[in-house]
Amino acid sequence: MDQVARRIPLIDGIEKVTGRLRFTADRKLPGLAHSALLLSPRAHARIVSLDPGDALDLPGVIGLWWHANTPKNGYNSSIWYAGQSALADERMFPPVVRHIGDRVAVVLAETEDIARAALSRIAVTYEDLPSVLSAEAALDHAGPVTDADGPTYLNPVDEIAFAHGDLESAMARADHVAEVTVRTPRSHHCAIEPHVCLAWPEPGGRVAIHSPCQSVFAVQAVVAQALAIDPDRLHVTKAPIGGSFGGKAEPILDPICAFLALRSGRPVRMALNRQETFTSTRTRSAAYGRMRIALAADGRILGRDTEVLVDIGAYCTGGSYLPGSMLQRLVRLYAIPAERYRGRAVYTNTLPTGAFRGYGSPQIHAIGEIALDLALCDMGLDPVAARVRNIVAPAARDPWQNLPLGNARGADCLIQGAETFGWTGRRAERKANSRFRCGVGMAVATHINGCFPGEDEASTATLRLLPNGHAELVCALHDLGCGSDTSLAQIAAETVGLNASDIHVAAADTDTCAYDLGTRASRMTYIVGEAVRQAGIALAAAVAEQAALALNAQSNEIVLRCGRATANDRSITLAELAAWLSTRGTDLPAATYTHRATANPGSYAAHFAEVDVDTLTGQVRVTDYLAVHDVGRAINPMLVEGQIHGGIQIGIGYALYEDVAVDTGTGRVHADSFARYTVANAPEMPPVRVLLIEEGEPTGPFGAKAIGEIATIPVAPAVVNAVNHALGSRLTDLPLLPDRIVEAVVQIERQG
Amino acid sequence: MKRSSPVYFVAGGTDLLTSARQMPLVGTLVDLSGVHDLAFIESSGADIRIGGATTIAAIAAHTKLAARFSALSQAAGECGSMQIRNRATLGGNIANAAPAADLVTALILANARLKLFLPGGSCAEITLEEFRSGTGALIAEAVLPNLELLPRSAFAKLGLRRDLTIARINLAAMAEFSDGRFGSVRLVAGALGPHPIRLLRAEGALSGCPLAPASLRVFVDALAADVDAAIAGRASHCWKRRAIRGLGLDAIARLCEMSPRDPLFDETW
Ligand SMILES: Cc1cc2nc3c(=O)[nH]c(=O)nc-3n(C[C@H](O)[C@H](O)[C@H](O)COP(=O)(O)OP(=O)(O)OC[C@H]3O[C@@H](n4cnc5c(N)ncnc54)[C@H](O)[C@@H]3O)c2cc1C
Fold this sequence. Notes:
The complex is a heterodimer. By secondary structure, chain A is α+β, with helices and mostly antiparallel strands. The longest helix of chain A has 28 residues, at 524-551. By secondary structure, chain B is an alpha+beta fold. Chain B has 2 domains: 7-148, Uridine Diphospho-n-acetylenolpyruvylglucosamine Reductase, domain 3 (2-Layer Sandwich), CATH 3.30.465; 152-268, CO dehydrogenase flavoprotein, C-terminal domain (Enolase-like, domain 1), CATH 3.30.390.50. Chain B has helices spanning 56-61, 63-68, 70-77, 82-87, 90-96, 102-109, 200-206, 213-231, 237-255, 263-268; strands at 7-10, 28-31, 41-42, 48-51, 113-117, 123-127, 138-144, 152-158, 169-178, 181-190, 197-198. The interface between A and B is medium-sized, with 27 and 24 residues.
């Protein structure tokens, strides 16, 4: 093998660093019209009237649209195929706004400045409605909050319960039962590229949509639902993306942009500014979790009782899946004989939530891993040893879906990680009674590989030989910047004996690609990679068949390597082969393969963190970090490490700094700029070591499993556990802001 | 320039152009960043003079200034990021008058005076405390009177992050310090109110005392008392009254050219 398991640089890297790559906002189309959104200043209010003032008279203003003159179709921006059933409670412009930042109106004009100037001329009269601004408050609002303008707005939006084994007897038998509550904050993706979309009319009453997204087919499905038109009228193409992390998984601007293009007959651009991206897109939901853990004296977890409350914000989107997703990930980590789980998702009048790197996993594993650490601490048990005792073994099945977890190597992550980190020695030494306290902590996590057993978990890849001897990969791919195009090119190249840079990845296009779910659920390498591998094997066979003719050999004698087909001592380059085929009027070989998933193995990880805590100022520094990941096999170790480094940066922010912080009195978003939304910057990054466990997953392409989402999942609990170790505290409200640290330290000092 | 049209200044633009406040739509914008005569640091004479359009990077890098008043150099060195420091100016920091403006805390400590060009064309010299922004006055230079400077000084700040962070509190300290003992001590803290304030209790606690755990303990308690007097009842009070102890020790350690992790400071706690 010479393409897989290699540190190959991004195939689009040079285009990116030289600025040659054109992002959506860079595109200049002739006759482009620009837009600006009027966003709600009210948390929950009926729009009584909208007076355009002289907005429409401003030179350059093309039009103004709001709920009175736009389609009233309900839609759900999280659907990924046309006709998917989901609570369709969103509208392009609702008559009742449900959160500060909700969409009230849009102005289309010759320039964005004119559109924005026109907004200031519009006067809206609102009639305030009672608002629900926290998940706890939402529980008191079981039943309709308002039936003002349907669909009825009921809490909880979703509820899921699961029981397995005999929990009561586990609790009774236990040597210790700990109860811990954990709160995780609402967080924002902070992609460098704010949300943006282009749309233009195409012949035949069609409209083209070009936007950075995670699935062209999801965009097509959502826009079709919002406009109540045939999806075939929508031609969606993928634009290069400047970061998503889940923030662009749901089309937010696309329905409006397509509508404006159809209505005005012009190419239309919609672009949010940074503040709008904070207040009017999506966030990771805040969660509240209470866990009771029954432990035996030897560290075995006998039973666990978990209750989770998720604030999904003002619209359902995919938030109703969260309680189930959290359950799925929770029960795939440890083998626990008795488990009870109740998860509820509730609406509030706050900004909507959606996907964000892990879809529920960061929340549930933070809850579970912080709670477990405190329970073990109560008993004086070692966090690593106890986890080794409980973590699922290879080929285990989860108790909820009864799916095999594949070659689950969590124990290897723990054991090798503890060894490499020097866990035992470092955990033992803890200096008390000084201003700066050092502590070490760790956490484990698991995450999924794709959407199986969802019935639509499949991917179709086409690979075709090009006249220059390279190959084109056609698949509805969405590289979100993490390098999946490169990894998939490596897989394709490996199978057909080319270099990764010889694989031309076509941009996703609903007109030319087979349906694909898109980039979500950590499925790119594991699912799409396998489709590409199989298509590659088929293309190689087709190429070998033709080469056999050209070389006068048997096709099973043909070896494809380095862009050449060789048999015995005769050889031909693939470019020569392509030319030879063309002169004979033969089509160049191509192969298409549809891979339907048959498994959903777990990826596992153990992270180890060292922190330095200033007990006077409450500042925490992460001073050393080790991430150990069970990736099956790294297709590109450099890109895997890149994912892990980035995951740690996001996770440190989650643990220590980041909070969108919606005011529970007013519903206002406090952190609506980078001045207020604090992310971990380069100086906050510790030295990071990465250790990969490569034991191979039999169902994955070349043994590979996912890394993208799991990279960030164990980080926050590892850091929080390290802080609790340093201080002897029981901090469980994330992020651990200096104020919270100081409060905990003062309390500990008071108790002596 | 027509008298009727209002005049606004822009220097580095790091406040003006990034502000959420709308830029005025009418008026004349005068760019000071190219005015050579407003960008200088004169530290060889008795008083230190710094031009209003001097960049914060230039202030941070000036070794002679650091030797005489390191609190200002350090405040400059910790202001924003390298990119910000390369554009941001002293005059902008003063005129923007944010409660957390780092350089202003150090300048107040030095009892700085400002030379202004007034709209009518005349000049004036005032104390920094007397300065009010929005009057149309141009800050031509800041003067740090030699008589006000004590031999050692230091600056420390606390934000949410370590770097590129707006201060939740900042502290500038200036003292006589020799043979392990403090003489006069002056302390000014920012972000405890609209303008930086003197911390008189803490100054009193440290003046004339040895650098020793016992006196440092009294000193940090006095710092907390100063915070109590300034912001009792505010949401951030609980954190600030404790954090100032750490910040105070950081500043004193820096002033004494020691590490705040030195056992001497650790024992204070
Ligand atoms: C990312 C970022 C980080 C920052 N970090 C910090 C920080 O850590 N600490 C800190 O203190 N500040 C910080 N700032 C704020 C800002 O950089 C400083 O206040 C800077 O000194 C402003 O200088 P300027 O030249 O850019 O001002 P400008 O933006 O050009 O002007 C600001 C105001 O001052 C007026 N003005 C400018 N020069 C003069 C003059 N000579 N006379 C009269 N009026 C004048 C302008 O009219 C305007 O009203 C930060 C800003 C950003 C964007």
